[in-house]
Amino acid sequence: MSENVTITELLKPEELVEIRQIAAVIWPETFRTILSGEQIAYMIKMMYDPSVMERELADGFHFALLRIDGVAAGYCSWSAYRPGAAKLHKVYLLSNYHFRGYGRMMIEYVASRCRRDGFCELYLNVNKRNLTAQAAYRRRGFEAVEAVSINIGNGYVMDDFVMRLAL
Asked: Which CATH superfamily does the domain covering 5-119 fall into?
């Protein structure tokens, strides 16, 4: 990796626009074989609407942007989950940067921040059909601890595994 790589925490609502811009590219790429186009559009609106992200930021969620040579290439989001544990809500990377260690960098960044903040565990949800992501999380030390089906409205569900990493 000879590129200039930075991970920057976004602290102001106006900074979140870059995440929304690349999410609009990443989500259809990532989920096109797993979810319908309608569900992808619904979930993008549900999770990335400016008012939703601004409320999350105000509620203590952390957002970080990965830039490669100054270009937004990925992002992650996490927050406190329960006593002693944090939750990794989002970790996404543009597909042309997959399999080059950048996803690992973002997970390590979040794990480091969570350890610093006193958390002992990090949880995440991953779609049961997203085998590539599951394998990546297992390589980072996550283990599946539960299967969940979450009704997200409009007739859609998130059919996920909950995975846990000891920090």
From this structure: Gcn5-related N-acetyltransferase (GNAT) (3.40.630.30)
